[in-house]
Design brief:
Layout (H helix, E strand, L loop, with lengths): L2 E7 L4 E7 L2 H17 L9 E4 H11 L5 H13 L6 E5 L2 E6 L19 H6 L29 H15 L13 H13 L4 E4 L2 E4 L8 H14 L3 E2 H8 L7 H14 L5 E3 L7 E4 L12 H7 L17 E5 L2 H6 L1 E3 L2 H4 L12 E8 L4 E8 L8 E3 L2 H7 L5 E6 L5 E6 L1 E13 L4 E11 L23 H4 L2 H12 L1 E2 L8 E4 H11 L4 H8 L7 E3 L6 E4 L4
Parallel strand pairs: 13-17
Antiparallel strand pairs: 1-2, 3-5, 4-5, 6-7, 8-10, 9-10, 11-16, 12-15, 13-14, 14-15, 16-17, 18-19, 20-21, 21-23, 22-23
Helix pairs in contact: 1-3, 2-3, 15-16
Length: 549
């Protein structure tokens, strides 16, 4: 009976595992230990790894169906029983359980793992080590020099110095009480702590010891680049690993190769991560299947800057379906806000520095699938989605009711609307050549919210108006003032005008020029900072604007 020796490399030592038995028994035992070791890659070397024998048999029966499940049970039991120095077979409620460790030996009993050398009784019995005091160097008397005594730093100076050192080293400040942290802060603190460990490879929420993560060659990276160029769209880790490396998703080695792929591509300048939690994806910086919107994405982000004040209310991926009413601004540019409502159905970032993700939207009514880009909020820009312009213009109008639904695929979403019988109205539009607003006869077949429809009968004074310049658009209160003049009723005189408008009219009309939520508009109208606005004392959501002379 021969033996097979497997060498497992680690950061501290090389452990030789010698498997016993016949040739097939040695090979099968080696495969079992590799599977168990891969499934417990974050375990300490001496921690027990347990797995029911039937689970192993089901895995091998699925990989190699030439033998039945019962045959694999018998083979595994014989192979593992021939190696009692590596595996233990325990009797559990559901049958035999395989037990081993990453070190390739049966786990020690719990009492053997107790560190008695550092327990208090043992430490009190040992005398303290004798401290060797180095000889003091005496300054010669014949060389008189001014001796400056060290000045004790104040507590504030010491704390400032600690923070400066931590910032220089990239180390997070020490947290005294983790119960004071939010979930996001705690996750980030753990991520920073793991990142500082030596010999650890990580990306997003995937972390592993460097010795168990494969390394990709420059040729591997080149093949991935060429495949993305050939496809012309973002590709998921699963597709890259299966097509380029021949590794099927769900296999034990797939997660290690996924981490290796993500960590390597993150260091390449021409690759960009555009995936979401549960579906990592990569593209090249010059390959984007989403057409650029009419308005620059940076300017759209500035328009949605007001959403940063509402970011604390965002809870990504907590809802399955959300409803939304399209505004004129959203319909014109093919965008949607990453606000608290839509963020509840959309995916969160994979890592804090991620700025964008590419999603797939399916439209059941039109039988089409298209890419949509999600821009996450940054320090001075709000988040939004774009890439919906063609779909909006072909099927919807400003004021349409839409539904966005998550699917089992984290990257795929369903966008839906309620079809109705033929409707025809004169709706507001922008003549982009003349840069003027006008009302056009419009036929549509989608359900809409009347309060957001911009009809000629409702807002006739919009006709012939020019879009506001960029400087004016950045001032929330100035846009509201001009909107009062466009849609409000003058209840004053020609010499001393005073405009009256309902909140619904203001919300619909303000969102012609720039996005602004009803809550934000109401807060401005009721703020003492802007005395030109006044709320009606008897009618709810009725407001007045008196121009200042």
């Amino acid at each position: 009976m021969g033996a097979i020796t497997v060498v497992n490399a680690s950061s501290t030592s090389l452990t030789q595992i010698v498997f016993e038995g016949e040739q097939w028994q040695r090979e099968l035992a080696d495969r079992v230990h590799a599977l168990l070791r891969a499934s417990a890659r974050f375990f300490p070397n001496d921690a027990p790894i347990r797995l029911p024998l039937r689970v192993l048999a089901e895995h091998f029966a699925a990989v190699d169906p030439s033998a039945s499940l019962e045959d694999w049970l018998q083979r595994l039991e014989r192979a593992l029983a021939a190696n009692p120095h590596v595996f233990l077979l325990e009797h559990g409620e559901d049958g035999l359980v395989v037990v081993t460790t990453r070190a390739g030996k049966p786990p020690l009993p719990p009492e053997a793992l107790i560190d008695t050398a550092h327990q208090l009784p043992q430490r009190f019995m040992e005398p303290p080590a004798h401290a060797v005091v180095p000889p003091r160097r005496v300054q010669p008397a014949e060389s008189p020099q001014a001796i400056t005594e060290p000045v004790a730093a104040t507590a504030a100076e010491a704390a400032a110095a600690e923070e400066a050192i931590a910032a220089t080293a990239g180390v997070a400040p020490v947290v005294e009480d983790v119960t004071t942290l939010t979930d996001e802060q705690l996750i980030e603190a753990v991520r920073l702590a793991i990142r500082q460990l030596p010999g650890v490879v990580g990306f997003g929420d995937l972390w592993a010891a460097a010795d168990v993560v494969p390394r990709l060659s420059r040729g591997d990276v080149r093949r991935v680049r060429e495949y993305i160029v050939e496809r012309g769209e973002p590709l998921t880790d699963d597709e890259i690993l299966e097509v380029i490396f021949g590794i099927r998703p769900g296999t034990p080695e797939a997660m290690a190769y996924q981490l290796a792929l993500d960590a390597q591509l993150a260091t390449e300048n021409d690759f960009e991560f555009v995936g979401v939690p549960g579906a990592h994806a990569w593209t090249l910086r010059d390959i984007n299947p989403v057409s650029a919107p009419k308005r620059r994405p940076a300017d759209i982000g500035q328009d949605y800057r007001y959403l940063l004040d509402e970011a604390r209310d965002e809870h990504p991926a907590t809802e399955t379906v959300v409803d939304h009413v399209l505004t004129f601004y959203e319909h014109l540019y093919g965008v949607l806000p990453y606000d608290a409502s839509l963020a509840a159905v959309l995916p969160s970032r994979v890592y804090p520095e991620q700025t964008r993700a590419l999603l797939l939207f399916e439209a059941p009514q039109t039988h089409e699938t298209f890419h949509v880009e999600l821009r996450y909020p940054t320090g001075n820009r709000g988040g939004f989605l774009f890439g919906l312009e063609s779909f909006f213009h072909a099927n919807l109008v400003a004021g349409a009711l839409i539904t966005i639904e998550r699917t089992e695929d984290p990257r795929r979403f369903v966008i839906d609307y309620l079809p109705i019988s033929r409707q025809e109205r004169r709706l507001l539009a922008l003549d982009e050549k003349q840069r003027r607003y006008e009302f056009r006869p419009t036929v549509y077949f989608c359900a809409a919210q009347d309060s957001m429809l911009l009809t000629e009968q409702r807002f006739p004074r919009f006709a012939g108006q020019q879009p506001l310049d960029e400087r004016t658009r950045r001032s929330y209160e100035r846009v509201i003032e001009i909107t009062f003049e466009r849609v409000g009723e003058n209840v004053g005189t020609a010499e001393a005008p005073r405009y009256m408008a309902a909140l619904d009219d203001l919300v619909a009309a303000v969102n012609v020029e720039r996005p602004l939520s009803a809550e934000r508009i109401r807060s401005i109208l009721t703020s003492p900072e802007f005395p030109q606005f006044e709320a009606d004392s008897e009618v709810e959501d009725l407001f007045y604007y008196t121009p200042t002379q």
